[in-house]
Specification:
Structural class: alpha/beta
Helix content: 40-55%
Number of helices: 11
Radius of gyration: 39 Å
Strand content: 5-15%
Number of strands: 9
CATH architecture of the largest domain: 2-Layer Sandwich
Largest sheet: 5 strands, mixed
CATH class of the largest domain: Alpha Beta
CATH superfamily of the largest domain: Ribonuclease H-like superfamily/Ribonuclease H
Strand order of the largest sheet: 3-2-1-4-5
Order of helices and strands: HHHHHHHEEEHEHEHHEEEE
CATH topology of the largest domain: Nucleotidyltransferase, domain 5
Distance between the termini: 96 Å
Amino acid sequence: MLRHQLIVLRRRLHGRVRLTNQDRWFLIQLYRWFPSILEVLTIIRPETLVRWHRAGFRRYWRWKSRSLGGRPQIDTELRVLIRQMSMENPLWGAPRVHGELLKLGFEVAQSSVAKYMVKRRWPSNPGWRTFLRNHAPDIAAMDLFVVPTIGFDLLYGFVIVRLDRRDVVWINVTANPTAEWVAHQITEAFPWDEAPRYLICDRDRIYGRVVTRRLRAMGIRDKPTAPASPWQNGFAERLIGSIRRECVDHIIVLGEMHLRRLLKSYADYYNRVRTHRSLNKDAPVTRPLQRIGSIKPPAILCGLHHHYARA
């Protein structure tokens, strides 16, 4: 022990003693065999050697307990798929996700599925978007809008739109809107077996008792918006905005028959051709995907819009 300390001291150039890993290992081995060497240490303190020994003990057992195999890690794509399933289906647990993966041909343990699922602090509940989408098929909205004519007269357009696919159920024009006329339009728009459960409207006086009685007779409950709150009828307001920006703002209306013909053409274009971002770039009446044929753009509304289709 003393001889090795002299060797270390002879290697020193300037400053404190420089110990290599071999020196530390040698001293630790001597300490394991002869603990009494602590009495003859001069170049280091005894507690330093004890600290080295404990650190070596920890590293040794860490090396002994290392993993020699075990369960292989799953692919990155499968981990991404598990996370996607758990995010898109907040009501699913690990057994349900595991069952779906088995049906897709993935051999993976349920414990691995639980490991890579999204961890949530609170119980899994659907969000507002899912809640509204589940109720959208039973809700429709209606509203009136004004269009001036070439003679500075005012015509009133009436629209009804379903919230599920944003499709225009009914559109018509009148120069003298009354409650009886609105009630008749609602009857024409919804057959008795296709009426929605709720119908959103504003607090216009035209939706009076006549309209309310007709709705109740058809099994529809009216849902008036709050005063001065047009955003509560956002679907109908958005449709009217599209009608203005894409149709009537670019045409001088000659009369009631002219406006009715224009709105009917636009409603057909809106339902069957026009794509919507809220429908993942699809039309309310789903357009089939076309891959074969030459592209021909027939004009709509005298060239105001075009329908691109393969023939």
